[in-house]
Structures are given as structure tokens and as C-alpha cells.
Design brief:
Length: 135
Amino acid sequence: MGISMNRSLLLTIDSLINLLLGVLLVVFPRDLISFLGIPEPSSAFYPSILGAVLFGIGIALWMERGADRVRGLGLGGAVVINLCGALVLSAWLLFGDLSLSIRAAAVLWGIVAVLTVVSLAEVVGVRNDRDTVGR
């Protein structure tokens, strides 16, 4: 097995672990925490946000596994991580039973906005990189 095959296999395994943990934390945060026997938070908010970030990292790792060289997750990875976090945070703000002050809601919606705007800028950066490489 060559170096690139080992790298691809490791990234695939790492990606699948992150994707699985991410989905479990987003969908079943309390059940997973109880199963693991770790201290339970008063709300599923933080575990599900962590799950969204882990899910985004899993997607970014999956994208990276086909690369010929180590380059880091790059802009494409940053986009999926940011958007996964923003999506789950938005869902909590819209549908979660959160008792937030106006300031807290403004801060959290501000985070969603920043993550979304930064992701859009990163998408433009990725697209520009592809256009430059194609020339």
C-alpha cells in the first residue's frame, strides 16, 4: 500500500468517525451523552453545535482524501464547517426552546450572519482558485 493510499484510508476513517459523531450529537445529543456516561449539560444546545462542527470537519476530511499532497482543509473545508455550524445554530434559534435575552439572540444571529458571509466569500475564493488553475 503506497503512501497516498495510506493517507486516503486514514482520511476516510477519520472522516467517517467525525461524520458519525456529528450526526449522533446533532440528532441524539442527550442519548449519546448518557450512553457515554459523561456529565450531562442542562441543554442539548452545545452538544448539537459541537455535532454540527464535527459533521463539517468530517465532510472537509472527506473532500481532502483525494488530494495528491497534504494541503490542509483549505477554503472548501472551511466553507462546509462554517455552514454546518451556521445551519444548526440557525435551527436552534428558530426552533429550539431557548430563553434568550435580546442581546444573546442578537449575538447568536450575528454569528450565523458572519459564518454565512465568510462562507460566501470563501466560495468566491474557491471559484477564483479553480478559474486560475484552469488557465
